[in-house]
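Researcher: I'd like a structural prediction for the single chain below. Treat it as a standalone chain; there are no partners to consider.
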Amino acid sequence: MATNTVIRKKSNTAAIVQALRTTSVYIGLPQDSDAYPDGTSLIEVATDHEFGSEQARSYTSTRGNKVSVSGVPERSFLRSTAKEKRSEWSELVTKGVKSVLKGKITVKDAMNKVGLRAESDVKKKIVAISDPPNSPQVIADKGSSNPLIDTGHLVNSITHVLRK
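Model: Treating it as a single chain, here is the predicted structure.
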């Protein structure tokens, strides 16, 4: 069954349930995310912040300076948002399922609504995180104290995908 077809018959409930069970929403960064201009992997930077890293890193800042950091403290933006918003996202799924069963929207539309909301919530979290703060060296280099915002590349790369 195509997930982009509106289902209007009650007899298709089993097909709807199957489509819902086999469609997942993933939020985060695609595997093929563009690297930063200096070649630094966006996925590595995001992982370092999400989980923290004791590994020393060097990068070229947006101001063209070579910067070395001795480690990155954990600044979870994916896991923490999922934990904080789980009940809201569950309510959105429930509303979506009801709309699909009534034939008002497709499974794909319902799942995309959840994905767009989660994507928005993660982006808001990235912008809001202030703790732990950047080191004085990084603040001086960036000209900003927001730990997860420099060029906007990370926040603008957050997306969602639907997968069967």
